[in-house]
Amino acid sequence: MTDLNYGDPQPRWFGMKRPQPKIVLLAFLVMDVIVAGSLIAANMASGANPVQAGPAAQVQVKAGTGPLSPPARICGNAAVLGAGPSSAPAGAVSVPAGRNAGVDFSRAHTTYWFAPGVHTLARGQYTQIIPGHGSTYVGAPGAILDGRKDNLYAFGGSATGVTISYLTVRNFGGEGENQDQGVVNENSMPGWTIDHSTIKDNAGAGVMLGSHNTLIHDCIADNQQYGFNAYSTSGPVGLVLKNNEIAGNDTYNWEAHSPDCGCTGGGKFWDVKNAVIENNWIHDNHSVGLWADTNNRGFELKNNYISGNYDYGLIYEISYNAVIEQNTFVRNGLHNGPKSRGFPTSAIYISESGSDHRVKGNFNKTFLIAKNSFIDNWGGVILWENADRFCNSPANTSSGTCTLANPSVATIKSCNATNIKHQPYLGDCRWKTQNVLVEGNVFSFKPSNIGPSCTPANDCGFQGVFSEYGTYPNWSPYHKAVVEQQITYNQNNHFRANTYIGPWIFMVYEQGNVVNWSEWQGQPYRQDKGSTLSTANG
User: What does the pLDDT average to over 513-526?
Assistant: First the structure.
């Protein structure tokens, strides 16, 4: 066992902490070569106070069944995006190309047909289309709505049930504008559908998502902050994102302009209940691919191809209840991984998240990461819990937010220095990485495919489940090794029946505690039962 001294972590990004080391002394670990074998799966129950899992029901699973290639090649695909009606549908309002300042777009339950060519609105930052309830805005082949970097928003207002189809929306907002705002559905209204459209080169987020919004067959690319941002004051419910290409977003590099903002990526979810994210290609975003941050729950992520994102492919943070299954992760974290020595950059990063049966909805027994394929990412799966982060802690950078497990009892006010030393506050005032099962995945990486910086000293090729020594604030009951003990031994977190190819290294119990394959599998950690490792590809 190699026990490293990394020092105290420092916060990065408002929704998460990525600890930074003071000292990094890593030695390359030589691992055993093991022939791949059989795979098993388990369905593990959780409770309010989870303990280590006992015998689990065994079922057959197939390892690493993520898509072999991107399932959604949308951007620039005329067959998908250019199939809008070539003439105005019956009863539709025909909108000619050119300046559309005189068009009344606000009629309810009306179809507006945009003719081929470039469409613009009147000048002015706040000039935008205010849709009517239940109306449809559809583009002919080649129809473009262009904000000329003058108008901030394309579609706003308070209408519900709006549909936007076969339309390109581009150039809304100037450089550095629209932070945390969106161009399409500016006010996150419910019931919107955006399909077969291109949303690109806009300031802020290309799309804001509210309750029962659907993105399907869209190209959402090269926007300055997010491709999409799922946020509303009451918390969005019932999102569907299918068959989209979400690429190259965060072109403004908001983390450089607003340090620690935690406000970038292909897409961000905040306080979303129930989301289906399926058959998307999320790639080459200049930050995180997908980021679920703060009290999200009931997420189903399947059959996505997540590749080439500069940072983590997927973050699931202080949230609950998800299944992440049959996805493919390729070459994520290669840009930012070498810059984050001391805390491994992974394809999937689970931060203070897991399943809790008291949070109603899907997947509230087992948080499942299964049957995914991982190829040449900077790292694999990291399960992390920040010992200093809980309701009412200064280290809770999602300030004003508390947990969902027992919301009538555990609140920002009640999780105070007096109460939190006692149950139920002691258990319910913190988000937990618990009931997580990482099973039936294939993890493959070859350092030479990644580059010369892919070394153990740069934290390349890590899996892990760990916390850090609690130190802050001084009234916290989670000081010292309390959370390290819980996440490692008592919160039902298991790697199992995975296939590893390459010189994988493991961080367990405490940040910086690095172990080899036999130590990872042996006492006291007992991880990856039924798993195999071959270093032949390394």
Answer: 97
